[in-house]
């Protein structure tokens, strides 16, 4: 395909993370070859069946350029999500950037909750229990690995 636009004008270092179960934060940097007045716009599609949506809450830099987006109420599907960032400038055409991402791979898991410790001084042992972290995707039978650091004071 022919990519219209100035070389080096597409965004760089695009990355997204999902946190707090349903929030997603995507960020990028302006292309090194982009004119100073370039403004970027992010569109995404959670699955092929859903329509493409533009970011509703942009993160802006000091020059009011869109440099990221915060998404609320994101649900992780089984398909890859599609991200598309285009740009506009008075002076020239801006190249677009696009990427498919498996959302479950970018989810930052919450810590375990309801941690309880019950120690028995007579038996000289402790029972530590917790609930597994909430995750936003539906694969509930996934294996979690836990690491316990015990510091004696």
CATH class of the domain at 12-105 equals: Mainly Beta
N-to-C terminal Cα separation, in Å? 64 Å
The average pLDDT value, as a whole number, equals 88
Elements, N to C (H/E): EEEEEEEEEE
Point out poorly predicted stretches: none
CATH architectural type of the domain at 12-105: Sandwich
In the CATH hierarchy, the third-tier topology of the domain at 12-105 is known as Immunoglobulin-like
Q: What share of residues are in beta strands? A: 35-45%
- Tell me roughly what share of residues is in helical segments: under 10%
Query: Strands across the major sheet, in which order?
Result: 1-2-6-5
Major β-sheet, in short? Answer: 4 strands, antiparallel
Q: Please work out how many helical segments DSSP would assign.
A: 0
Oligomer: single chain
Structural class: mainly beta
How much is the radius of gyration in Å? 22 Å
**Gross morphology:** elongated
Number of strands: 10
User: What is the CATH H-level superfamily of the domain at 12-105?
Assistant: Immunoglobulins
What does this 3D model show about the protein?
The chain is mainly beta and 153 residues long. It has a domain at 12-105: Immunoglobulin-like (Sandwich), CATH 2.60.40.10. It has no helices and ten strands. The strands form three sheets. The protein has a four-stranded antiparallel sheet with strand order 1-2-6-5, with no helix packed on it. A four-stranded antiparallel sheet has the order 4-3-7-8, with no helix packed on it. The chain has a two-stranded antiparallel ribbon with strand order 9-10. A hairpin with a 3-residue loop joins strand 1 (12-19) and strand 2. The protein is elongated, with a radius of gyration of 22 Å. The N and C termini lie far apart (64 Å).
């Amino acid at each position: 395909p022919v990519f219209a636009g100035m070389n080096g004008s597409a965004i760089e270092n695009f990355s997204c993370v999902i946190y707090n179960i349903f929030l997603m934060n995507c960020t990028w940097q302006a292309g090194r070859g982009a004119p100073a007045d370039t403004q970027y716009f992010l569109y995404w599609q959670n699955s092929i069946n859903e329509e493409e949506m533009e970011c509703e809450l942009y993160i802006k830099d000091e020059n009011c350029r869109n440099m990221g987006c915060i998404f609320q109420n994101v649900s992780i599907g089984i398909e890859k999500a599609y991200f598309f960032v285009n740009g506009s400038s008075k002076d020239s055409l801006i190249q677009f950037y696009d990427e498919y991402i498996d959302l479950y791979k970018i989810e930052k898991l919450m810590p375990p909750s309801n941690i309880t410790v019950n120690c028995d001084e007579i038996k000289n042992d402790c029972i530590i229990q917790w609930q597994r972290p909430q995750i936003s995707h539906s694969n509930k039978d996934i294996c979690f690995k836990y690491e316990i650091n015990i510091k004696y004071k």
